[in-house]
Write the structure tokens for this entry.
Amino acid sequence: MALTIVNSIGIRPDRIGQFQDEVAQLAEAATDKGEEWRWTAHRTLFGETLVMHFVTLTESFAELEPLGTVEELWTRVLGDKKGQEGFRDTNECVQTVQHTISTLRPDLSYPPDELQPGAYPAAAVTSVRARPGQAEACEELIRKIAEAIPKTGDAARIITNQSIIGELNLYWTVRPLRSLSDLDEQLPAPELLNKAFGPAEGGLLWRSGSEAVEQARREITGYVPELSNPPQS
């Protein structure tokens, strides 16, 4: 079961520079040492700014377990003294922390043919919370959007995850972007469904799916290579 672990960090406005400097030192040392804990860093560009997302991909919980805690990562990479200082100083920059674990849903996705860290410097990330008892209808909406993309030749690609640790009934899709102008070539979901399935069926899919959604939120994030220790290609 492929897992996506996301640590979302809200940073104090007066400490963003210090936070980035500390994490950049950690990332550089981790890359130099071949640290097994691999992650990519993403900054929110449009949406809730001053939030960084650190994303780790694993194939199982068993693969995740040996990585340990974030504090252990700091001391493992930088040594006990420097690592503890870096962990402490970074925490002083933090306002909020949210950890989630999600599972990849290939059946609700239409991904790019190849996705390497840094290949897409930005992404549109949409989180969708299903109403209690409405998860199936919510999934059907996402599934039909994924099906509509190849039917219409739309430029969009989506990768869907479902939260299994953290807020349940939560789905989130990632649309990789080579540039923000990619969004100009992608139809809004209602138009995409209408084009793929016709106005009657497409409209019904959108209405019934929307009724199953309790909350939806979209942000645009940017990849930050200097704060990352990405998987080896």
Observations:
- Helices lie at 16-33, 61-64, 70-78, 80-91, 135-152, 189-197, 199-211.
- Strands lie at 3-11, 40-46, 51-58, 94-104, 122-130, 159-165, 170-177, 213-223.
- The chain has a mean pLDDT of 94.
- Residues 186 and 217 are 18 Å apart (CA to CA).
